[in-house]
């Protein structure tokens, strides 16, 4: 393999791993927000929800 | 004295997850923007940098391998500090920080191992050797995987939090071993060439892109860690909501 191939493989691995990590974290956040929204739509709320509304929670 | 009191007050206020979420909402876009900007500058400078007289173009692997390795160790250090915060002060966000950081650290460690191997083959003539630096770094990867497995094995966050904090602190012994392995033992891996008492031994044309990429990776870590901490807080809120739902059903019967 040429030197350029080793460099390309390294940057490709970085793109794949970091891109995958960013995507996984983003999807995790979206799934958690959807879960909270679904539970709150059923009328289920945290006991401190009223107190925290003023704090942007 | 008032400065200390103000600092302690800020720290205590941050213990409220709702305040942390509000703060991270404001801070997140700035960190993400800084990451993209420094990463673009770092990549541009990296590909404009001259080839090394011995290594040729493979020196460009250094611009991702070295920052990834630094971040892998920094991430574990952040986890160790969080573990102290969790065990000593029982700060509610400390355990959240440990849990959120472990997968990020594992990815940075894997990236350092893969790019190191891809750099080693053309320069050393081998993909891998069981020398002190490579082996201790591989142990770091296994420790990250162990922590992730522990977090997933136990449902109770309080119990798994204490266990993982102890494990993180015990495993921290590996960080100085990784750092000084190239000085303490005869290794194929080169000794430190940036963080040295007598200054860096890298030419500025290669050192500047490396440092910019190191800043970019650091910003990337803090951006991802912040968002992952938000996710972990939301995950715990889901658990609380589900418990409340179960209680409501129980009371209504």
Automatic annotation (TrEMBL), chain A:
The keyword Magnesium does not apply. Its main location: membrane. The chain crosses the membrane at residues 6-26. It is a single-pass membrane protein. It is found in: Cell inner membrane. InterPro entries: Haem_export_protD_CcmD. The keyword Repressor does not apply. Keywords: Cell inner membrane, Cell membrane, Cytochrome c-type biogenesis, Membrane, Transmembrane, Transmembrane helix, Transport. It holds the Pfam family CcmD. NCBIfam families: cytochro_ccmD. Required for the export of heme to the periplasm for the biogenesis of c-type cytochromes. Belongs to the CcmD/CycX/HelD family. This is Heme exporter protein D. It comes from Pseudohoeflea coraliihabitans. The lineage of its organism: Bacteria, Pseudomonadati, Pseudomonadota, Alphaproteobacteria, Hyphomicrobiales.
UniProtKB/TrEMBL annotation, chain B:
Its main location: membrane. The keyword Transmembrane applies. Keywords: Cell inner membrane, Cell membrane, Cytochrome c-type biogenesis, Membrane, Transmembrane, Transmembrane helix, Transport. The keyword S-adenosyl-L-methionine does not apply. It comes from the Bacteria. Residues 11-189 form the Cytochrome c assembly protein domain. The chain crosses the membrane at residues 27-47, 67-89, 101-120, 132-151, 163-182, 202-227. It is found in: Cell inner membrane; Membrane. It is a multi-pass membrane protein. It holds the Pfam family Cytochrom_C_asm. Belongs to the CcmC/CycZ/HelC family. Required for the export of heme to the periplasm for the biogenesis of c-type cytochromes. PANTHER family: CYTOCHROME B_B6 PROTEIN-RELATED, HEME EXPORTER PROTEIN C. NCBIfam families: ccmC (TIGR01191). This is Heme exporter protein C. It comes from Pseudohoeflea coraliihabitans. The gene is ccmC.
């Amino acid at each position: 393999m040429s030197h350029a191939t080793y460099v390309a493989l390294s940057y490709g691995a970085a793109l794949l791993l970091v891109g995958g990590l960013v995507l996984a974290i983003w999807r995790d956040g979206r799934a958690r927000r959807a879960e909270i929204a679904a539970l709150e739509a059923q009328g289920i709320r945290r006991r401190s929800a009223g107190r925290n509304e003023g704090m942007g929670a | 004295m008032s400065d200390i009191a103000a600092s302690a007050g800020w720290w205590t206020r941050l213990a409220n997850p709702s305040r942390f979420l509000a703060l991270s909402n404001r801070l997140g876009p700035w960190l993400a923007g800084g990451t993209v900007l420094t990463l673009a500058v770092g990549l541009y400078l990296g590909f404009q940098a001259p080839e090394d007289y011995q290594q040729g173009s493979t020196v460009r692997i250094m611009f991702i391998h070295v920052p990834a390795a630094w971040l892998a160790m920094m991430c574990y250090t952040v986890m160790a500090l969080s573990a102290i915060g969790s065990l000593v002060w029982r700060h509610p966000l400390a355990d959240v920080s440990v849990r959120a950081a472990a997968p990020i650290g594992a990815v940075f460690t894997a990236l350092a191992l893969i790019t190191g191997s891809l750099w080693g083959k053309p320069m050393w003539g081998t993909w891998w050797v069981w020398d002190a630096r490579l082996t201790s770094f591989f142990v770091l990867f296994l420790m990250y995987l162990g922590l992730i497995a522990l977090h997933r094995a136990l449902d109770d966050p309080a119990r798994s939090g204490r266990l993982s904090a102890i494990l993180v602190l015990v495993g921290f012994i590996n960080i100085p071993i990784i750092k000084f392995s190239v000085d303490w033992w005869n290794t194929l891996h080169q000794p430190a060439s940036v963080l040295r008492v007598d200054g860096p031994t890298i030419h500025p044309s290669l050192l500047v892109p490396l440092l910019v990429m190191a800043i970019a990776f650091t910003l990337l870590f803090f951006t991802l860690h912040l968002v992952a901490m938000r996710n972990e807080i939301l995950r715990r809120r889901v658990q609380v909501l589900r418990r409340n739902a179960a209680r409501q059903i129980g009371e209504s019967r």
